[in-house]
Amino acid sequence: MPRIAYFGPSGTFTEMALAKLESTGVFGGPVERVPAASQGAAIELVRAASVEGAVVPIESSVEGSIAPTLDALAVGPRLQIIAETELDVAFTILGKPGTELADVKRVAAYPVAAAQVRLWLAHQLPGAELYTSASNAAAAEDVAAGHADAAVSTALAGQRLGLSVLASGVADHDQAVTRFVLVAPPQPAPPRTGTDRTSIVLELANEPGSLMRAFAEFATRGIDLTRIESRPTRTGMGTYRFYLDCVGHIDDAAVAEALKALHRTAARIRYLGSWPATAPTGTPPPADEPAAAWLADLKKGVADL
């Protein structure tokens, strides 16, 4: 039975994402779930070969990319994303049995969760103090331990700890979604499906035009970039690395050509993987077969092409 780490403790949305991947057969059977205290800690368990993979959140439709996950993937021995899933995210407000919303003076919440229910908290609990928790499930544990009166958490965490539901389906934005990825040791990418996502991290020379030239490697080949983000390298002021997602697979000729071109010119390129996207998010790269057949005929000396 494979051991799979996840951003825990038990009861987080990340554990729910792991369960969803498990139910769709990604692991080929049941797994042993190993909670980790942070996204980075889960990823380091993979690097240490303590687990076969890790499920971590990578992007929220409300708050954008999950910085701790991006930073952990960019440094250290290379790992690879091999699968993803998405969850609709709405929160459950939990309290000890007998607690009412009117009793709540302190609310425990993971910062990403707090940002997604900011308006609800301002309207329903305007005077409540915010207590920062390490995860959504940890917020429920903080209530059970008496550190807060209510938690922005999940129904699963409430059931595990015997807490009462003070409100459910809480979200400032309808159809809020979080994307989670399965990170594993480097390996051949899953087979191309035609609706794939490829992700890389770039570090570029600090000179005029370097970023434009990198983008041009995708644009001239008709590759659709679906995410462009910069994060500081933490090695000095004004130094950044760039995270790029595109539609396509490393086995698509256009994507492979772009990666090779970037390898020749970038200061550093890290391939994070190609894997099936949960839902199509853009325009697939152009097919290579017609051009390849034309070139082959040229090499054969075929006339009138």
What features would you describe in this structure?
- This protein is an alpha/beta fold and 305 residues long.
- It contains ten helices and 15 strands.
- The protein has helices at residues 13-23, 39-47, 67-74, 111-116, 118-124, 136-144, 155-161, 210-219, 253-265, 289-300; strands at 3-7, 32-36, 53-60, 64-65, 80-88, 91-95, 106-109, 129-132, 150-153, 164-170, 177-184, 196-203, 225-232, 240-247, 268-276.
- Strands 1, 2, 3, 4, 5 and 11 form a six-stranded mixed beta sheet that branches.
- A hairpin with a 7-residue loop joins strand 13 and strand 14 (240-247).
- Helix 2 (39-47) packs parallel to helix 3 (67-74) and helix 6 (136-144) packs parallel to helix 7.
- The protein is elongated, with a radius of gyration of 22 Å.
- The termini are far apart.
- The mean pLDDT is 95.
- Put simply, the count of helices is 10
Q: Can you summarize the main beta sheet?
A: 6 strands, mixed
Which oligomeric form is depicted? single chain
Helix proportion of residues, in percent? 25-40%
Shape: elongated
Q: How far apart are the first and last residues' alpha carbons, in Å?
A: 56 Å
- Tally of strands: 15
The ordered H/E elements are EHEHEEHEEEHHEHEHEEEHEEHEH
As a percent range, the share of strand residues is 25-35%
Radius of gyration computed on alpha carbons: 22 Å
Low-pLDDT windows of residues: none
Chain-averaged pLDDT: 95
